[in-house]
């Protein structure tokens, strides 16, 4: 089953909820077994590793040393930076120091989820821990490429697509000005929404559970942030293409945009 060309991956967990890992474990294109056994070689991942403690710490350091400049670093979670990062510690080290040690040695860092991309909920006001996304937290220390794959959680297809782009073409995908792959974040949710014709016709849901809601009218007046949110949810959907928030009758809350907890709230306007 194994392909010797599989690139080594070091997957770091910082200040997060593990929702992004849960999303990746439910990837369907390919399924998780194919992703782990045939596509990439995940050498370090705290959630799915059977071992714990000093032995896995050694695995992390050995992998980084052995594959310096050749491994992909995936980061889930924001990095607390206040007071030299003491609000986030793993094995006696701050998350900030771990990121400073590991990310610059990777060939590239892929930030999975809005937390590692832009700070996420940890960075919401008043942000007492000084939480930041990876690129922001490391600044000039990180000279290797960073790709942000935001969403809370992101669609696993956008994460897998970024890796597959590298495997097929030997380079990372084209990015927008927020370091997001254009293949996934090049258009707004509103651009691709199947309720768009209702928006154009002025047909809006004004009340939850109303007749207009049953008819699938536009959710803008309930607070939908689809017009300001770049993501491909209407096109790829979640759970093997089953559904996505607006299809399920819930407004988009802008989960792939920087600072959405502050800038997109209130999420509901009815
Ligand atoms: Fe959890 Fe959302 Fe952060 Fe992912 S981006 S770790 S789902 S809070
Ligand atoms: Fe746009 Fe949201 Fe209305 Fe869809 S439901 S058309 S994304 S405002
Ligand atoms: Fe997030 Fe909006 Fe898609 S809330 S999952 S970007 S529809």
UniProtKB/TrEMBL annotation:
Residues 17-165 form the NADH:ubiquinone oxidoreductase-like 20kDa subunit domain. [3Fe-4S] cluster binds at residues 233, 252, 255. Residues 185-268 form the Cytochrome-c3 hydrogenase C-terminal domain. GO terms for molecular function: 3 iron, 4 sulfur cluster binding; 4 iron, 4 sulfur cluster binding; electron transfer activity; ferredoxin hydrogenase activity; metal ion binding. [4Fe-4S] cluster 1 binds at residues 17, 20, 115, 152. Its main location: periplasm. The keyword Magnesium does not apply. Keywords: 3Fe-4S, 4Fe-4S, Iron, Iron-sulfur, Metal-binding, Oxidoreductase, Periplasm, Signal. PROSITE patterns: TAT (PS51318). Belongs to the [NiFe]/[NiFeSe] hydrogenase small subunit family. This is [NiFe] hydrogenase small subunit. The lineage of its organism: Bacteria, Pseudomonadati, Thermodesulfobacteriota, Syntrophobacteria, Syntrophobacterales.
């Amino acid at each position: 089953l194994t392909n010797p060309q599989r690139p080594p991956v070091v997957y770091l967990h910082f200040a997060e909820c593990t929702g992004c890992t849960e999303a990746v474990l439910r990837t369907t294109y390919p399924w998780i077994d194919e992703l782990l056994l045939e596509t990439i070689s995940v050498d370090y991942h705290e959630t799915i590793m059977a071992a714990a403690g000093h032995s896995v710490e050694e695995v992390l350091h050995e992998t980084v040393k052995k594959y310096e400049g050749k491994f992909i670093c995936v980061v889930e979670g924001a990095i607390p930076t206040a007071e030299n990062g003491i609000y986030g510690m793993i094995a006696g080290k701050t998350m900030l120091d771990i990121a400073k040690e590991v990310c610059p040695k990777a060939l590239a860092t892929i930030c999975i989820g809005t937390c590692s991309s832009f700070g996420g909920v940890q960075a919401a006001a008043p942000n007492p821990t000084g939480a930041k996304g990876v690129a922001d937290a490391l600044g000039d220390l990180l000279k290797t490429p960073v790709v942000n794959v935001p969403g809370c959680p992101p669609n696993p297809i956008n994460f897998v697509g970024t890796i597959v782009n590298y495997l097929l073409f030997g380079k990372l995908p084209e990015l927008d000005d927020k370091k997001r792959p254009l293949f996934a974040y090049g258009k707004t949710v509103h651009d691709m929404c199947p309720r768009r014709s209702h928006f154009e016709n002025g047909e809006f849901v004004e009340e939850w559970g109303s007749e207009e809601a049953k008819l699938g009218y536009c959710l803008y007046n309930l607070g939908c942030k689809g017009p300001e949110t770049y993501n491909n949810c209407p096109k790829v959907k979640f759970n093997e293409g089953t559904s996505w928030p607006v299809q399920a009758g819930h407004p988009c809350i802008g989960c792939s945009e920087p600072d959405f907890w502050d800038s997109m709230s209130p999420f509901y306007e009815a």
